[in-house]
Amino acid sequence: MSLTRAIAISGFLVAIVACAVVEVLARRKGSTTPTLGEVCAHAIAYEVGRVPVGRIGFFGFWWWLGWHLFAR
Q1: SS3 content of the chain, % helix, strand, coil (to 5)
Q2: From CA 42, how far away is CA 50, in angstroms rounded?
Q3: Does position 72 have pLDDT exceeding 90, yes or no?
């Protein structure tokens, strides 16, 4: 395994662990930190006029993710 690949994998693992820690902290009783679901719901509901910008952005993100992970 090359050094750059190891760094990239380590970075993704750190990001996943950080998201998990924030989610656990958000689910504590009395916490004011929003959960990942609440953040996603707020982002999806974002509109500019009548254009659902949040939904278009999420669709684009899932398309990009699927293209890069499952296209091989």
Answers
A1: 70, 5, 25
A2: 16
A3: no
Q: Are 48 and 33 in contact (CB under 8 A)?
A: no
Look up residue 35 and give its DSSP letter. Answer: P
Structure-block tokens of residue 59: 């669709």
The region that residue 14 occupies, defined by phi over 0 for left and psi between -120 and 50 for alpha, beta otherwise, is: alpha
**CA–CA gap between residue 54 and residue 30 (Å, rounded):** 28
pLDDT tens figures, 5-62: 999 999 999 999 999 999 999 999 999 999 999 999 999 999 999 999 999 999 999 9
* Per-residue model confidence (pLDDT) at position 71: 79
